[in-house]
Amino acid sequence: MTARRGLVLHTVAAVVTAVVLAPLALPGYVLRYDMVFVPRQPLNWEMIAPADALPRAVPLDAVVSVANLAVPGWLLQRIALVAVVYLAALGAARLLPTARVMPRVVAALAYAWTPYLAERLLLGQWALLLAYAALPFLVAAARDLRAGRPGALPRLILAAAPAAVTPTGGLIALVTVAVLLPLRSRATAAALAAVAALNAPWLLASLSSAAGGSSDPEGVAMFAARAENWAGSWVALLGTGGIWNAQTVPASRSSVLVPVVTVLLLAVAVLGLRELRRRWPGGADRLFILAAGGFVLAAAGAAGPGVALLEWLVVHVPGAGLLRDGQKFLIPYALVTALGFALGAELLADRLARRFEPAAGRVLLAGAILLPVVVMPDLAFGASGALRPVRYPADWDVVAARVAVAPGEVLSLPFEGYQRYDWTRGVVVRDPAPRYLDAPVLMNDALRVGAVTVDGENPRATAAQALLDAGRPVAELGARWVLVRRGPVAEPPAPVLAGLRLVYDGPQLRLWENPAAADTGRLAGAGRRMPALAAHLLAATVVIFAALGLLRIRRRSWYGPRTHESGEEETWPSWPPS
Amino acid sequence: MAKLATFVVAAVAGGVLGIVGILATVGAVSPSADHVASIETSDTEPAAYGTR
């Protein structure tokens, strides 16, 4: 790719990023649902291996805590979100097997301006979106590894690393590598071993956690794909939408024309996918298998026999709760659709150009570039202001300082994991306490979806809920601190706080101390979490060695994927035959 | 002829994008839609992870 064309793609990625994340120019933190960044996240055992909760944010929390040692939380959040959108656009554009720049721009928009990205962003799942952004680079690295190109293995590891900061992303990376690479080869074994090592932190953390491996089957229905308009949930999934939460869906998805545009987009994509098979023999088929598998997982929970199967799995197979929110596995499908749409648009543009004049083809490509934006205009400007930053009330710093003086377990009340506050402008956000306070925080991991409560897995949270339901003093739990977050949810009644001493009374937070609490309490148990720490160190070592290996090999851009470096004859490094 | 064809392609593409864009924007600003734009007023549940 010429430097000028590369510059065009970087510019497109930058413009898309700036348009989507414009409100992040304002000071503060974007707090939405699962997205909680704090000024300085502590690095403690709970970040490495939660004692009682499932390791849903392992090794993410440790990575953020370590990064926070050098970069403040507000900046780290901006780096992460910019990386998501920028790399998604750039990765798809560079992965497209073409010599022309306009179809690459089509791919960039078709992958970075999707309902999937918008909905997961609005749900605050930025770490899952790191896997989304990393997938094009991972696919390119797998292609190069298969072809025996130098530096492919380190690039594959570095592409898998951001994906593997969450269990879901790590699994997607591992399956991607397993599907795209040939079964019996040393390179495949090395790649699988490396990506498995990246997954080791959450696997070992789950072994040391007291949380049960099974999940509430009610979650299957609650977190199943959801219809966004008249066309039903399957069509929503075909358009890469269909997230379970109605509150995190861009409003434009309810437009009556969305299903029509989805069909139009898929029709063009089908044309393009045939061309993708031709330009990418062997590799395209494997990518299709990956995408189809992801789509089946996404659709399984919505209807049919898949529902019963998933319900059985989440109860009887440890860790199968990961499959409940199946829409998140649409990532490979979204990539395949974007590549197909871009190639299909290129084919149609070529036909028009040959039949009439080149300008007609360019007009068509310009239309294809704009189509994702036009059909979902409300992703612009932080999803129409939904990503507006807010400031933490000063109470949080005061409480964090008090707890830091005498660390001990903190019970966070009201016993709701997610809550809306005035200071978040009414936006629902996960309890910030576990990340703000340098202490283990006992919060409710049951999830309320409308009127239904999906039970959590944390046994201590279950015990705390039983205590609260009975109206008994929470001091019996033995936590050293009780934090009360003031907001629209009623504060706990006086009998529940009996035996506690109020040590801070602010406008947003109240902190109570339990004089009867043991000094060490839940801080103990470091020994059984050592394997998880070792897994973190192993994963970090793998990443460091991959980076060093790549630095040694590569003369130029280290992050790939690169297609053709000189001339336009070899438009795409082909896959070896399967 | 070629210029006319280009004009037709541009008109069709522009028309499709325009209609889709207008309808999508209307959907986005419609106060009755079940979506994120109405999050602060439509969902009074103070402690739910979400609604379906």
From TrEMBL, chain A:
The keyword Ribosomal protein does not apply. Keywords: Membrane, Transmembrane, Transmembrane helix. This is Uncharacterized protein. The lineage of its organism: Bacteria, Bacillati, Actinomycetota, Actinomycetes, Micromonosporales. It comes from the Bacteria. It comes from Actinoplanes aureus. The keyword Transmembrane applies. The chain crosses the membrane at residues 7-30, 69-89, 124-145, 157-181, 187-207, 256-276, 288-310, 330-349, 361-383, 533-553.
UniProtKB/TrEMBL annotation, chain B:
This is DUF2613 family protein.
